[in-house]
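Form P-L/3: holo structure prediction, ligand D-malate.
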Amino acid sequence: MTDIVTALAETIGEKSVVTDHDIVSSYLTDWTGRFRGEAFCVVRPVNSKQVRDTVDLAKRFDVPLVAQGGNTGLVGGATPVKKAIILSTKLLSGIELDHDLQLAKVGAGVTLSALNAEAQKAGLKLGVDLASRDSATVGGMVATNAGGIHVIRYGGMRRQVLGIEAVLGNGRLISRMEGLEKDNSGFDWPSILCGSEGTLGVITQLTLKLVSVPRHRAVALVALHTLSAALAVMTEARRRLGGLSAMEFMTSNGIELVSNLDGAPWPFNNIPSISLLVEAAGEDDQMEKLAYFLDSLEDVVDAVMAGDSAADGLWYWRESHTLAISRKGVARKLDVSIPIRAIPAFVDDLTHLLENDYQQVKPILFGHLGDGNIHVNLLDVAEGDTGIEHRIYKMVSTYGGSISAEHGIGRAKVNELALTRSQDDIESMKSVKSALDPASVLNPGVLFV
Ligand code: MLT
Ligand code: ZN
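OUTPUT (holo model):
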């Protein structure tokens, strides 16, 4: 009897099926190094037909199929739980811009940086931006409903998708690529597939909205004593800082780790308990506006500012967190959402829990304050200890938050979903899953147990 790898090679061509052990193994570990899987082969389709053939064969042979983009996810969502075929979307390429309508038709495997490099020629960019921009693919960003650093201004990935093409787990090809701003003719596939983490379909192409690149921007790094003071800055910025485009917070543990990378000198004499990065962007010069805004605030201990291209120097402190943490070990990455007003109380409770019961654990908290999104990274957690995550997620649920703000559930949080989604909710999601992927070949073990 033919095996799955031979059948794939015969159907979509040997060139598109990789079995070389060294190459395959580079797809088997996630970015964090925490999750590993096994694969029969890696398939690299170049068009939707090949994707469809791959899905059909996975069904026929009853073999799991895991779609993988830039492999920059942080919850193991693109690393097989059971031995699988990995479908790399990287060769699903092509960028077609419509300058006037500010749209891009893009292959799912195009990286964010490649899309922006092309869009930049017309003064445009995608509204969503994140530190892994050089590797993260637009298909993966939609599959995980990526958030990033400008959600406060442009919203997350779901708000950028005007059209989608995907092969569903039932083998059907959905193609709604026209980019209609309005389309109420039934279910909205971009909304259904966005955030589905490869469990309903394999995204092959997208029509994405673009935004104009603001001519000027200014960034301030602000030193503060407390998170409550940071929230007060945010409330004022929402009210009075017209060009507000990012509001990110960092804590002293994270700044210390980034300082150890020796990439740049920390601009203040001391490391404050809270550092806030505030960005404003617009058509006119933003430096004066931002300086005026900061001058009017009471709780600011210290601040430095940089404009336009020099602003990247200040972003370095925020964007190097993930790398700096990974240099210290494999962190437990809890990416949670907390109702904004409750953030200081949540962080106090979390600090007490760790001080009382987990003294050896080093927490690094940072994230997108404007979105109520805290990245709780924990270093030095005892191997095999999952209790710590469960206790923190439970705490999140008592605050009315979510156990995943932007990274997704993946396989990391699959046993915790019921903490912040009801049974009716989960069962209804499972009904959607079994309707669109009846044989359950797409990413089994991710999102649902
Ligand atoms: C970020 O915002 O830098 C990443 O989503 C966070 C992380 O590494 O936990
Ligand atoms: Zn983030």
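COMMENT: The pocket of zinc ion (ligand 2) is lined by residues 367-368, 375, 406 (CB under 6 Å).
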